[in-house]
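Table S2 (continued). Query chain:
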Amino acid sequence: MSDPSGIHRGHRRHRSPRRALFAVLGTLGLVAAAATVAVPSANASAPPPPSGWTQVFLDDFDGAAGSGVNTSNWQYATGTGYPGGPANWGTGEIETMTNSTNNVSLDGNGNLLITPRRDASGNWTSGRIETNRTDFQPPAGGKLRVEARIQVPNVTGAAAKGYWPAFWMLGAPYRGNYWNWPGVGELDIMENTQGLNTIWATMHCGTAPGGPCNENSGIGSTTSCSGTTCQAGFHTYRMEWDRSTSVEEIRFYLDGNHFHTVRANQVDATTWANATDHGYFIILNVAMGGAFPDAFGGGPDGGTQPGHSMAVDYVQVLSAGGSGTTPPPTGNRDAYSAIQAESYDGQGGVRTESTADSGGGQNIGALANGDWALYRGVDFGSAPATQFVARVASGAAGGVSGLVEVRLDSRGNAPIGSFAVANTGGWQSWRTIPANISAVTGTHDVYLTFTSGQPADFVNVNWFNFGR
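Corresponding output:
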């Protein structure tokens, strides 16, 4: 069912830029909040995985009061939008997101607090964090569960005007291409606004406006918190993405109660594939203002009370069944044996497809400027590697070319080597291309990154390895 407001709650999203944005925004002159929610006393560890499920990600938000999040798990999205993307996060929200502990911090009791603030000039700040990992998806024939225990900001009525807390996910191709929403998919596990005892769950996909997924509203439904309101206590919000059923489906739950399902046969096959044939990353944020609050009375205004936190007890990701699980990143790959390109541990903008190259199997393709793939734990040994070799193909148009680069341990590090590639005679016309690299020893996470001066796809990769 579409959003009763008839507008899209989530426009976040016309291709999110890369967010290696850890620049401190500095002291923002924050003043004491007019009202500050008490630190929630409820605290529980994430439950152990049920039988048949494997834990692939967990943050219990344990740590000293006033400290920031674990940046091994999370990155901050700061400012008023992704660089190169739409203003105001594409939604019309009016806050500036920061990495300040005034806005994002641990409470010392096992909770994350995301707290909107308003300064003496009336300017709002808040927080938005996103998982570093972008590879959350079910294994073939299996299931993925993404769950969090959350108390939304404990504020209601006129004091809540403009509040918009959310727990949600975006398709991995959104990183590195800031304008491909909603085609790459968005899964809103929990959205709330205006202090209402109502939560919204939605899948966004297809094209906007309109299209097969009824954008900008998406395919959504609502339910209410029982026992305590969503504001007055913690509740558990869950999404299960199930590839074990005859028709693939995505289900949404509140406190274990199923209330909404989106099935692959509700849209055409291409729309579903574009939204689901890749991993996702997880987002927690509290926006102020924007299209969603506007549909329910607007705000924030002078009567809105700053300082009310969304409290998150844990975020957990589980995997079950299928031809394999979605494992936590692991290592030891041999740098000197062929590393199959489709065996990545994380990716952005990458598709897999059957390859006509000798030996069969799959290659990665549709690779364009800003796309990347991660291969964890590549062991180079004690004698330095000095060469990189990759099996590539390209059917790019005349004048279209780009670089295949190798980076170690972070996509933000400078490449240790690269080679240029243009049309090789077709997308399945394979060539083995060598390149020199800076000497490397030891074990490293290897990133293949793809850089071009234009946006068109320019290369496929089947496998790669290193040499001395």
